[in-house]
Amino acid sequence: MLKIWSLKQQQKEEEAQSGSRKKKITAAQLRVQKDLTELSLPPTMKTHFPDPEDIMNFELEIKPDEGIYKGGVFKFSFAVNTNFPHEPPKVKCLNIIYHPNIDLEGNVCLNILREDWKPVLNLNSVMVGLQYLFLEPNPADPLNKEAAADLQRNRDRFKDNVRSAMQGYVINGVKFDRVLSTGRR
After folding, report:
1. What's 99's DSSP letter?
2. For residue range 112-129, what is the model confidence (pLDDT) as tens digits?
3. How far apart, in whole angstroms, are the C-alpha atoms of residue 147 and residue 160?
4. Active centre residues (catalytic)
């Protein structure tokens, strides 16, 4: 809470010193600032801010260290609008990957980004939810129906397709992004 108030105080002092009025900080920006300062991400996840001045738009990198997607590096963009926390952030996968809950356009099927969103949820909840999708893909609520059917019918073939896709191969006419980490883990 102190950081929020100190941020507002700092803004007032800067305005007084420069003699010009800056844009006011919105409630959504204050909430995002609070959520970001309270993040408790594991070493397998990190955030990146392409524009350090814009905390409403950032990227998240997930490097699963277990499960089918182990060894991959997956990037997501977060766009938080001015109605946050009353509306969830818009999250897109920046890689073309073979996953039942992520389609080829990068749309993500995660219940807390849709019907189960509540203002008490925070950015950390969304990030942990994304990480969980790599540990336990959910074929019951798919965006990529082909991958979901593959997972339900033949788990070994699904695993093979995930490994091939992570290496950047073509599966069923679709070229996937190479997402395998080049460094040691």
Report:
1. B
2. 999 999 999 999 999 999
3. 11
4. 109
